[in-house]
Design a protein that fits this description.
The chain is α/β, with parallel strands linked by helices. The chain has one domain: 3-Layer(aba) Sandwich (Rossmann fold). Helix content is about 30%, strand content about 25%. It is built from 6 helices and 8 strands; from the N terminus they run βββαβααβαβαββα. An 8-stranded mixed β-sheet has the order 1-2-4-3-5-6-7-8, with helices on both faces. The longest helix has 15 residues. It starts with a strand and ends in a 9-residue tail after the last helix.
Length: about 210
């Protein structure tokens, strides 16, 4: 892993790079939720598994979380406009010409990915533990119109798979049975991501 820091309009963010073992065909950019940072088991499992599949993974620590973890003075904003502003700034640093770009995250991080995917030119979206019943919404989830993978715990109090609205054919909803909002079997999440990526069409991004 290598670490890069990026200045954003709302403070410094951090990128944890997990580089592909070969020239990458895809870069997957993943954000964290509010309860945990990029140390979350599902994010780490994905970052560990994907590089051997020609996928470089960039785990993004938002400025407010980075400030908290490093003991910096002052409170950094974690509202939606601030999260989105930081994500946009980081995205410009991680895109590569001709490389498929996928935006994603868990919980609040998946919301950021959904809200910004179209304007940033992402090719697809991955949403882990999307908070459908609040603070997320069906409208936000469906607004991208892009190929999407949703991985959801069967007992997630923020939205079980059977509570999701009808989804377009371009969206795959994978249930992890007997799991809640936090996954205790992260290897199953990583496996779902790997399998989905194998069937995802090639890059369309112009970055």
């Amino acid at each position: 892993m290598r670490i890069e820091h990026v200045e954003t309009p709302v403070g410094q963010a951090r990128i944890d790079w997990f580089d592909s073992t070969e020239p990458p065909r895809t870069i997957l950019v993943m954000g964290h939720g509010t309860a945990t940072g990029v140390e979350a088991g599902d994010l780490q499992a994905i970052a560990t598994a994907l590089p051997r599949h020609q996928v470089t993974v960039a785990l993004i620590t938002q400025p407010y979380r980075l400030a908290l973890s490093t003991g910096q003075q002052g409170r950094r904003a974690s509202d939606e406009p601030s999260l989105d502003a930081a994500w946009r700034a980081v995205w410009t640093k991680v895109t590569r010409p001709g490389t498929q770009m996928i935006a994603g995250g868990r919980s609040a991080g998946s919301q950021v990915a959904c809200r910004t995917a179209n304007e940033l030119g992402a090719d697809a979206v991955i949403a882990l533990s999307y908070p459908l019943l609040g603070p997320g919404s069906a409208r936000e989830l469906l607004a991208t119109g892009l190929p999407m993978l949703v991985v959801q715990g069967g007992l997630d109090p923020y939205g079980r798979p059977d509570q999701f609205p009808p989804l377009p054919q371009t969206t795959n909803l994978i249930e992890i049975p007997q799991e809640g909002h936090m996954f205790h079997t992260p290897a199953l999440v990583a496996e779902a991501v790997v399998n989905w990526l194998e069937h995802l069409p090639g890059p369309t991004s112009q970055y």
